[in-house]
Structure formats: structure tokens, C-alpha cells
From TrEMBL:
Name of the protein: peptidylprolyl isomerase
Keywords (A to Z) from UniProt: Isomerase, Repeat, Rotamase, TPR repeat
Database matches in InterPro entries: FKBP6/shu, PPIase_dom_sf, PPIase_FKBP_dom, TPR-like_helical_dom_sf, TPR_rpt
Alphabetical GO biological process terms: piRNA processing; spermatogenesis
Database matches in Gene3D superfamilies: 3.10.50.40, Tetratricopeptide repeat domain (1.25.40.10)
Annotated PPIase FKBP-type domain residues: 1-88
SMART domains: TPR
Amino acid sequence: GCTVKYSGYLEHRDEPFCTNCYSKSPGLMKLGKDVTLGGLEIGLLTMKKGEGARFVFTPDYAYGRQGCPPLIPPNATVMFEVEVLDFLDTDESDAFFELTPEQQDTFPLQKVLNVADTERQFGNYLYRKRRFKGAKDRYKRAFSILHRSPSSEEEQHQINASKLLVLLNLSLTYLKLECPARALAYGEKALEIDQRNAKALFRCGQACLCMTEYEKSRDFLVRAQHIQPFNHDINNELKKLA
């Protein structure tokens, strides 16, 4: 999927016949599903995040012989100006979640970690759009597949690193959803993996403060401050607590 700003123009027209440039935050579009114009799909696959381009499509790569009345006349050549804001390849992830749990268990760990990372990135995308419920669901999906039994210390390290990122995201998202008890639970799970993780300690401190458990909040925040004494967010939270 990709987030794209686009405007489509007919030849010799100054006004676009379609555009999403007036939208503050364009949604994620899936190639082949939301982007159905053949030429545009091919063009987007050649682009990188942050790149802008102008494409001219002959009818075969656009709306064909019939056009798309009343907006697009028959045999129309069209020009699209596009800018790729973000790219997210979710095909592998979507295919993985269509498998049975037994089939998922046979996948190599590296593939499972890739899928978890894609889900987490999708969660981050939704979080940035302030769609916290959707973000929480993606993070939970990522976490649900990380219960793999490792076959070596190195694999355990990789699984833990992946889990830790997801748990920190879940803790933060539950704070945004005003569910501090859940935020605390996920923060504490993160601390089981890394007891000196300043972000996890900070999230737990924030959650306890929301629940007016001031002593507990101070304990978490002071521990976080010991690890990152110059962190403004931690210091500000301690001031708030004081």
C-alpha cells in the first residue's frame, strides 16, 4: 500500500478531473485494489518514498477506448502528477494472516519477524493519523505471532527485540485511548524483557499518574530518570507529579 498525493488532468485542461491534494492526510491505497489505473500502478512501482513525478498515459494505460463518461472522453490521453508520501508493503503480511495457525507455525522465524514488523509499521501509520483503535489492533496482531519457541539464544534475542517494540507501542496507544491500566500492563510486560528500558518505565509512570497511584508513579519515573537524566519528557512528568 502507499500514501500518495495525486492530480489527474485531461490534455489542455488546467483544472484536474480528480485530485486528493485538498486532503490533509490522504489514506493508504492498495495497488491493484484502490489504484486500478494500469499506467498509474506501473508508475508508482518505479517510485521511492518522497519522490514526485509526472506521468502521461495513453488510453491503453488509462481509461481505454470507452473513456469514463461524463468526466473522461473516449480515447483520452491523461496526465497525472503524483507524490509518494509513504510506502508500506503489506502483501506478505496479509497472506500470512490468511493461513491457519498450524501453517503459520511452519514459517521460518525471519518471515514471522518481517510480518510482525509490517503490522507494527501499519500500526504506526494509523497512530500518526490518530486512529488509535486501529493502531492498537495492528500492534496486537503483531504481538499475537511472536509467541514462537526459539531454537537458539540468538532467536530469543530477535523475538524479544520485536516484542519489546510492539509492547511499548501498545502501552503508548492505550494511554492515548485513556486506558491506563492496560497501558501499565503492557509497560510491565516490556520491563520483563528489559528492566532498564527507560521508555517502558516512563509509560508505566505515566499510567500510574493517570490512575492517581502517585507513589508507584514516582518509583517508575525516578528509575527512568536514573537511566536518562536529561530526558525532558521524564523530567516534566516528575514536575507534574510534584
